[in-house]
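the six lines:
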Amino acid sequence: MQGPPLPPAHTWRRLLELALEEDVGPGDLTTRAVVEPDRQANAFIEARAALVSCGIDVAGAVLHQVDPATRFERRAAEGATASPGDALALVSGPMRALLVAERTMLNFLQRLCGVATHTRRFVDAVAGTGAHIVDTRKTLPGWRVLDKYAAAVGGAINHRMGLFDGILVKDNHVALAGGVAPAVKAALAAAPAGVRVQVEVESVEDAVVACDVGADFLLLDNCEADKLREIVACVGNRACLEASGGITLENVRAIAETGVSRISIGALTHSAPAVDISMEIGPGSPGVAR
Amino acid sequence: MQGPPLPPAHTWRRLLELALEEDVGPGDLTTRAVVEPDRQANAFIEARAALVSCGIDVAGAVLHQVDPATRFERRAAEGATASPGDALALVSGPMRALLVAERTMLNFLQRLCGVATHTRRFVDAVAGTGAHIVDTRKTLPGWRVLDKYAAAVGGAINHRMGLFDGILVKDNHVALAGGVAPAVKAALAAAPAGVRVQVEVESVEDAVVACDVGADFLLLDNCEADKLREIVACVGNRACLEASGGITLENVRAIAETGVSRISIGALTHSAPAVDISMEIGPGSPGVAR
Amino acid sequence: MQGPPLPPAHTWRRLLELALEEDVGPGDLTTRAVVEPDRQANAFIEARAALVSCGIDVAGAVLHQVDPATRFERRAAEGATASPGDALALVSGPMRALLVAERTMLNFLQRLCGVATHTRRFVDAVAGTGAHIVDTRKTLPGWRVLDKYAAAVGGAINHRMGLFDGILVKDNHVALAGGVAPAVKAALAAAPAGVRVQVEVESVEDAVVACDVGADFLLLDNCEADKLREIVACVGNRACLEASGGITLENVRAIAETGVSRISIGALTHSAPAVDISMEIGPGSPGVAR
Amino acid sequence: MQGPPLPPAHTWRRLLELALEEDVGPGDLTTRAVVEPDRQANAFIEARAALVSCGIDVAGAVLHQVDPATRFERRAAEGATASPGDALALVSGPMRALLVAERTMLNFLQRLCGVATHTRRFVDAVAGTGAHIVDTRKTLPGWRVLDKYAAAVGGAINHRMGLFDGILVKDNHVALAGGVAPAVKAALAAAPAGVRVQVEVESVEDAVVACDVGADFLLLDNCEADKLREIVACVGNRACLEASGGITLENVRAIAETGVSRISIGALTHSAPAVDISMEIGPGSPGVAR
Amino acid sequence: MQGPPLPPAHTWRRLLELALEEDVGPGDLTTRAVVEPDRQANAFIEARAALVSCGIDVAGAVLHQVDPATRFERRAAEGATASPGDALALVSGPMRALLVAERTMLNFLQRLCGVATHTRRFVDAVAGTGAHIVDTRKTLPGWRVLDKYAAAVGGAINHRMGLFDGILVKDNHVALAGGVAPAVKAALAAAPAGVRVQVEVESVEDAVVACDVGADFLLLDNCEADKLREIVACVGNRACLEASGGITLENVRAIAETGVSRISIGALTHSAPAVDISMEIGPGSPGVAR
Amino acid sequence: MQGPPLPPAHTWRRLLELALEEDVGPGDLTTRAVVEPDRQANAFIEARAALVSCGIDVAGAVLHQVDPATRFERRAAEGATASPGDALALVSGPMRALLVAERTMLNFLQRLCGVATHTRRFVDAVAGTGAHIVDTRKTLPGWRVLDKYAAAVGGAINHRMGLFDGILVKDNHVALAGGVAPAVKAALAAAPAGVRVQVEVESVEDAVVACDVGADFLLLDNCEADKLREIVACVGNRACLEASGGITLENVRAIAETGVSRISIGALTHSAPAVDISMEIGPGSPGVAR
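prediction for all of em together
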């Protein structure tokens, strides 16, 4: 089963430009001082820790942007597991270009592989339960499409991309509308064709009310496992149930075993630690990511 | 002693625009469906965990960008410590605008306070040793100036902003130049007025050579504490010494006690977890960050 | 019942800038030659034909962009019907600014009111049948959010905004997937949370198959009224039915009376004629749009 | 005699980018769900109605922007007449790219061919009279250079591009300047080298006055055919005469036969209906536009 | 008689942004180090040499862009002559903002006043002859509208803004077209309404031919004064005559006295030296520009 | 010894785009009228005066931007001296593209060669003294990196790029800080790693104080040669000494002979006259720059 496609370049082109402008600015003083302009080199981009490969073509776009006269060869599939020493890519061309692009390539990869790797841990933790791990809008500003892509590479299902492509009636909306029933009715009436309505509920009663007025997609925020089980029992398959709030690697399986279909987790993107990746210049023969 | 000034808005304006475009897109479907356009509201932006306040005016700029008819009042100083429940800001205006801006404001704050908070832990860990914590170029692409600002708010000293405003002769450069001495000489000769030259060394011998040819700023990468002490002893105050590589909260004080002046740490920015911050609508009386 | 909110300014800001740059360029030669810089004026923006008001605040943004020292007062509600001579807005400020902004303001208004007016004709034609008029992606390049806003002001329901926020499995997709059933299954499996799947069918058989595998939203393209009636009879309320293709003001009511829920029409946006609107300088007392 | 060149890409590049961003956004959900990434295809872009070909290379630029690995072959000359079923272009490459680009390519073509086709009707209607059809500034915001290009392809002559490259003293300017004579004198005095002055007049007297003070280019707005004939008779060849206002396909020939040189018509661009064009995937052998 | 209006801000906004980004970058290190953030100040922007005032509001826009909390008061009219010590503007607000904006404000003013001042020298040199000084397209890249504005403030007449708003048939075009007569005929036939045709000629014969086929605007490039006189005598007032090429302050009056109407000079913009202007902080009472 | 590398294209891409947009706008009317679209041509870009070659690849980028189907061959090395008639580049391709790009290519070259040539005069004037010529921030707005590049090609050393990459404590800062000593101390304490501190002094006493508190880089502004000599004698090699203010080609050697290390000169960039360069179409055999 193939993974998600890299989002179209126009969605991350401006971030890539920002990244190079902020790092390179008017030029690399060190490289200019000590590297001859016609010097050529090869280098491997290598994992220094166990990781899930992600975003390799973004790194390639960084290198190409610095100097179109470089070459970039992918050495690991998106989503493949890499061990320390495994190559993710082979880069070659003018040494100056490689050194200028190095940090920005690695910064992108360390983030994207970091999110994919962190997500995979949660996905593995619920394996076999039938529950899906889902991302959130708690992504880094400027990184929405890349962060969500990395979560998908890690095995998560994407929730709505933003405020514009899904309706999620949260507790504040419910309060403003005067209760779950009027809120859901208003949302269903206003939903554009093609957009589903999800509503946040915090009790069995509200879950039943929501279904009764036509909601078929519920968010169960900050509910204990017992309450989740109770809602699953009451609602049955009248609605898709998504748990969220306070999910950790320690408790995610217990949540999954309550019978909910989806578990959404902000930490996939807001707190994924970077994974260690480096660029090694010169000959060598690294391993291959699997 | 006052903290660092927020970087000029032109340096983070494009990131802010990206962030709103990616989240809001053609409009907030939920708010449109269930919130009346003339409804007004107040809300507090509150810490939900202990944190170091940072980037509050960036959140204000987000709100103002969504709707200039809103008000944003800062309730905590940059760099102040906040406890769960403490207010960082008071926001008011059209309810729709508050809900549209909420996630992007929080995403910025959770990241910036996250970096400042994580940095403060390292700064506190070396208190009294005389060593300074320093950031690196391992920032998130697109976030260089904001990440470095947050590190400074946390108490770190900023290293160079990018490739353009400092010279750092690393191991690859030394190899290309044929040794530490020729590399340093070339770098000193080419350095623009106002730019200092730092050189990476990995042995006592190279440290001495570097000083002998005029370097007064050394990077000691991946050295054990014993070797650091040895270099400190040999070089004395002929150069500013900066340690880096493999620094953790556990070992940072031991490194600081070797006598180095600076300790640079990529994790300040590449692996800072988000801190929990929320927007609470309606009346209430949160605490005050100190 | 209130109408749709104007899309956030960031979604049409670039179009507005393009429009002023292309018309004003390095400056208005005529105004410069014959109008004194300190001359002030008032003017009414008036309907010259019966129309549905739409986009008045976009015109205000044009004027403000040309000169922040101008004033713009709306005189008609969005969606209100105006007769020839009715005022849509009152503008005042430096005469030069009014003349510079005039054509661009009018060009926006003639288009947006044109789409709203054309849409209203279709909406009125199906009044009482229970069917809704729906827009399409056949908007003018660069105008997606404004065109769809104008269609909504005219009384249409918006279909998906673009390729990213709805799934519509069309005939080409069905052929590629090997039939309606596998296509719908693949789409349902891949749909992000919050996104509904619509599938195009051309026969009663395919409509039933689509419902059987879980589709609850069908597009019936280029079907005669008889066939539509047959599909409505077979599918009942298992799915939302949308007719499209070859719809005109002459046949739209007959289509609506087949019992379909929605009728989508590209001509709302791709072929709406401009409505006549002018700017009248000086005193006067125009009527009021209702 | 060759037609007008396509305007330089920098003049429509931003519109093209807007168009793709608004339609594709973070990616095409449907294509991702049901089309395999390595599937290749051919398709013809075909006329579905009689039309004047226009803007084919703009469609090619859209496709190339979506995926540089596609091919686009023009099959009809700009300005050629196409019948239903005639090919305008042959496109090939990854099926996903073709489907992603389809709607935006067609939206550009339906508009540009629509303007060219509508213009050609007016041009044909005055054939043999010696009068030229001229466009106006009543173009769609953001579309000025493309709309004017399409009008030229249809056979019209372009009037000024904007406020910056021609002087047109209209009724409001005349009133401000205190009459036709002072207005024309001021305009002639201030006209940059290379810019002609056109002045709007509404009577035989004003036409003569304008010529007497040096104007050689008059706009006759909203004049009946009789008055136009009278002005033609009085002014003779002292000035170029352009009629405008209320021109339709029904009355344009009568206007042309009054002896005016030019007839300017806003409807060429503000009310041109789209022409039907589609993309047909797979084998086939369409006709050829002439 | 009033001077030219400042070009609309959208024509120089991008240049202003570039200028601030390149100078300020991530922030002013010196000001941050030694100036307290709440310190306020006044300063005069003063002429340090005799000059023609120009572009003062551009400097104001720079200051406002750096910090909207500053104030900027113009103290000299555009086009007024200033002596050393005369104030051009009074600025006030946060000291940090003044220091950050200082160099960019001065760099704009030194250039714009420099062009206006240099132009005024040529204008004064031909005073009384009836000839006008005209600018060219030899402006600094990125500075077209501002350079031409400054030339106009200095008293020059603007030639075409660019390739798009005027036709100038130069020697290369004449050669390509096969002579002056066919070149002029082609140009007149293709000229958009409102655009005049100018043709470069180098002999009396060509000047006469050009007039005979309808040109009424000639460019006489690199002609000696004697030849200019001869052409003036032959052509009389059949055409407007413009001399160019090799014009200096020494020979410009002699050229003007040949009877040509216009003299175009690239050096107005390509070689205008900066004039000295400084910002003086603190109390003081400078003179007033006249 | 090789010269400085051309700054990365992202640093001057926006200026190049501005330059083409402002000159070409919606298209070249003249070329369209008199040059056939399929006409091909060769041309040499030639020096018309003695000059130092600079920025040739920027001109190549201009041509390529106008039409990627053109060819551009460099014929002179950056920094080489050219005599009148020497070729700088050979361009070929569609005649229309060459004519469209001509003026913008030449405007860039005349400026960049102008700065390099003017700088070289100063560099030659101090040959053998050991002093270096240094540029300043008095560059043309929008041109910082290109102006500084041209100064470097001319033989100057670059001072800081902007406010962000060097600390220069000027007289205003000293006054605010309460004297040279506290100002220097504050600056040294706040300087980021890698940034040197330079301080402006105007007397022998202040120079000594500055050195005593740790400054090793002094700016001596507007000092007579005698005072410079005195400071050199007192400070010896405790600091790098840079003279500035009122430097001309006439007095620069006398300043250099005082023993200062550096002489910074704003006129390198703010008042460099353009050098004459032209594009000659057709066959020919120009000389070669040395």
